[in-house]
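User: Second chain of the day. Same drill as before.
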Amino acid sequence: MPSVREFLLPDLGEGLTEAEIVRWLVADGDMVAVDQPVVEVETAKATVELPCPYAGVVTRRYGGEGDVLAVGAPLVAVTVEETAASAGEPRATGSGSVLVGYGTRETPRRRPAPAAVPAVTVPVRPAPVPGSAPAGPAGPVPVVSPLVRQLARRHGLDLRSVPGSGAGGLILRSDVDAAIRRAEREPAGVGAVTAVPGPAHGPHGSDGPEPVRVPLRGRRAAAAAKFSRSRREIPDATCWVEADATALLEARAALARPDGAPIGLLALLARICVAGLARHPQLNASVDTAREEIVRWPATHLGFAAQSARGLTVPVVRDAHLRDTAGLAAELARLTAAARAGTLTPAEVTGGTFTLNNYGVFGVDGSTPILNHPEAAMLGVGRIAEKPWVHEGRLAVRRTVQLSLTFDHRVCDGAEAAGFLRHVADRVERPLRLLEDL
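Assistant: Same format as last time:
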């Protein structure tokens, strides 16, 4: 006997509470099989395809592209033939495709990264940020996501007057969007919600084309929130040095492997970073403001900036300190391919302790980046370009690169930061010195 089963938006892990529908992979009336991907969604961490746990006919899709749904909300309805499996009895087979707490059969959970040595904590008392704004209106407000609060503040909404449609009256992103639309339609003084509208005309008051408004959602919204928090909380500083990278390029050529698998410059720079952090562990750290402590991490989880069609993302090489150069190259290549394909999982873009930012691929020499909160440091690498350079006492044309280190001044002072950066520059100029770090 046919029955309708609703597939709910599953728990996506990492504290994520909502996801935006990027595109539907099925239409109403389509036949779907167990574990067939039916929709692509974007969270604040990654873009993932969700497999349906039911086989049958799609009878309803809840929401369109661009809509934001809360975890636990209906995603798609499927008409199935009642069988032992669809009635809730264990399936004998299944692909085991899972997210977090969801799948067609039991699948071992991802093991946590080993940490034989506990993190070292050092008390610190960060100074308050002068002129910081209050976190929001007084009194508890049932909001499902910090991004919802940020959106409400940006539009001048009082969340206490926004009715919530979530469980227990939780205020969802869709509730705030609806309140903004109502406020823009209603004249001033009408209704319970007020908003600050955008300019009616162009920046100089003349009539003209309307500005393009792009929703700040998913990873872009999460990145915006993280950048703002980093600037608000972290007193950062930057030091830089120019280095002769000619020998590093020669080392890359010498390391060409017979199987054709390349060891690129990013892998060599990652190897240099790991060696530098072993000598300067104070930079592999973060600040726990709630406990007023500096936390020095025993493992190095190396993040690196990667560009994808949906914007900047920072995949993380787990336990980079345990990998050799070839292992780093293989993992960097795998994560880069996943970033471009939009298939990174939330676990692959979280938990970094230090970031390597190779902005030189965009043809620029230098940058002072925003730290990837809550990390305490980031190494920036500019483009490698030919330049007149004094080499062995003579003027020559060499391949040089600008290196910069942006660091949290609460974690270390300038001398320690300069020591790490100088270590990196020395290994760029003399790659054979990496043998000292083995």
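DSSP finds seven helices and 20 strands in the chain.

User: Great, on to the next one.
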